[in-house]
Amino acid sequence: MARIKSTVQDVAKYILKRLASKGEDNITSWKLQKLVYYCQAWSLVWEEAPLFLEEIQAWADGPVCPDLYHKHKRKFRLDPDDIKGNTRKLSPSQRETINAVLDYYGDKTGRYLSDLTHLERPWIEARAGLQPGERGSVVIEYNDMVDYYGGLINSAE
Hints:
The protein is mostly helical.
């Protein structure tokens, strides 16, 4: 696997900047977390490599990257200046992946995205044994994301 140069903050900053350029600024931290998750999942499928190495956990409200959460935990809405990432660290293919994810998921609300993740196997399996609303910190594994989201491509063909 190639050395990963970008961080979750770089990806989050890029997402916030791109959504702001389309007129959507001040997105919720909830929505940002889900978009970061989908960017990571689809990068694993399409590029066969993660966008960043920070882990994503199966929290009660859906997938969350704790490293990113700790950077914005006191803010409900975010704009690009709230995240200190460096978008120049993202390669052209990484930007292409993020753009494709945002083209598909970017107009959805945080609630919609959270509800969607609750229907999908990677989050469900990572939450096994936990009650709805119960705190948990189980990591959503790369292989689980690849198996599930890669399977969506295969079933559509």
